[in-house]
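Weekly modeling sync, notes
Attendees: S.R. (lead), two postdocs, one rotation student

Agenda item 3: backlog of single-chain predictions. S.R. asked that every request posted to the team notebook include the full sequence so nobody has to chase files. The rotation student volunteered to paste the first one in as an example of the format we agreed on. Action items at the bottom.

Example entry:
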Amino acid sequence: MASGNSTSSFPNTVFINDSSPPATITFDNQQLKSKLKFAILDDIDRKKGCEVKEAADEIKNFRPMSIIDDPSLREICTHFYNLGAKNANRNMDIETLFQSRQTISRSIIDQAHHYRVELTELIKESIQNKSLTISPDMWSDRYRQISYLDIKRRDESIWN
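Predicted structure, as returned to the notebook:
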């Protein structure tokens, strides 16, 4: 409603009196839960993106297991060990530090088995409750020509 005020110091001033209540948005619990889920998922995706980038940077430095048998690697390691031994007065056979690629491969296989068992224990309850969703996520980096495979796990019991 508009009305003129003749007692004002500004004679042409118009004051508006709006008595309608302010517009408020009401959310029910389901809408709030949904919005919160999306905010959390966006945050998780953002963090995952950073983790993937860091992991990709580490992956580019991987070498095959056969590098252990490379005499040049042993020569470089021996050189640096001798530099350290000269300054620290320690003597050791450098060959005892190197394991064969088969030994390293066995160690990796044992660790992979160990982590599979740990992961199984971690998600066993979700599997029994049938509240676990697993999906593959594959992508490739066109610049480096590297393909990646990731497994996304979602525990529905957390969100419900």
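Discussion: group reviewed the output briefly. The helical segments are 29-59, 71-88, 101-128, 156-159.
Action items: rotation student to repeat for the remaining queue; S.R. to check formatting next week.
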